[in-house]
Backbone:
């Protein structure tokens, strides 16, 4: 019998695994845009550790291995910004991303008072867009990433988090 993937709050000890996983997972995004300077690929390990200390961070584990991660924090306008959702390429398509989103949404709404959730994804990131729309996010605008990548901004009301996944 195989191991199950579990979702839990990330710990400081997870920083290096999250850092490496993020680097692996966002290679395909970088290839979509021909831009290997996208934020997840140039983020430092120290910056990941800072986010772990300040943000709402969840990981998916298969045994001791971190195979997925997501981060969120409350913005100045009271929305929860969710980002850097990633799942190891060999485990994509099995609902892990949706489970990570649901965990982050739940914590951000219940523990940090988020009234709505917001996320950004590259305009060519069809897999991500499908997931986000399937779990209730709607396009509310566009923006330009600091790396020059055109982004789609999606939101949903915090009351809808229970419907995710």
Residues:
């Amino acid at each position: 019998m195989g191991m199950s993937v579990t979702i839990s709050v990330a710990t400081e000890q997870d920083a290096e695994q999250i850092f490496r996983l993020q680097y692996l997972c966002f290679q395909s995004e970088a290839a979509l845009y021909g831009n290997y300077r996208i934020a997840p690929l140039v983020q430092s390990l120290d910056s990941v550790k800072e986010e772990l200390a300040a943000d709402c961070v969840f990981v998916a584990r298969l045994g001791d291995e971190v195979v997925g991660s997501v981060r969120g924090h409350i913005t100045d306008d009271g929305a929860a910004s969710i980002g850097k959702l990633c799942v190891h390429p060999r485990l994509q398509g099995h609902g892990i991303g949706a489970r990570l989103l649901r965990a982050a949404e739940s914590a951000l709404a219940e523990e940090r008072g988020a009234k709505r959730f917001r996320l950004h994804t590259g305009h060519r990131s069809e897999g991500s867009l499908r997931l986000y729309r399937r779990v209730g996010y709607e396009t509310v605008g566009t923006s330009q990433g600091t790396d020059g990548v055109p982004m789609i901004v999606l939101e949903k009301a915090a009351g809808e988090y229970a419907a995710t996944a």
About this structure: The chain has six helices and seven strands.
